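pinging the channel bc i need a second pair of eyes. not urgent but kinda urgent?? the chain im working w is below, pasted from the shared doc
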Amino acid sequence: QVHLVESGGGLVQAGGSLRLSCAASGSSFGDSNVGWFRQAPGKEREVVATISGSGSGTFYAAFVKERFTISRDNARNTVYLQMNNLEVEDTAIYYCVQRTGSGWNNWGQGTQVTVSS
C-alpha cells in the first residue's frame, strides 16, 4: 500500500501563497491519478484539483479560479499543489488522495491551511 504524507500547510495572510507537497512511500504512485481534496469546518470534503498519472491531464474545481496549480514529479514520487492569492475561504484541511481501481480511496493524513484576513 502506498503511504501518503502531506506537508507545506500553515498560516498565511489573505493574498499569500503556499505550496503543498504529497510524498508517496512504501511504493510509488505508479500511473495512478492523484488529487487534492479539502474539508473546511462544518463542510463536506470537496475536490480541489486532480492530475493524471503522466501529469498531462489536470482538473480544477471552479472555486480555484486559476489560483492553484497541481503538478507531479514521478521521479520523486511527489505531487504538489501551488496555491496563490489565497482567500480566507480556502481555510481547510487539505488531503492528498490516490485514485485506485475502486475510486479515491487512499488518503493521506491531511495538512492544515489557515488563511487570515
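so The first strand starts at residue 3 and ends at 7. and The CA atoms of residues 79 and 96 lie 8 Å apart. — does that match what u expected or am i reading it wrong
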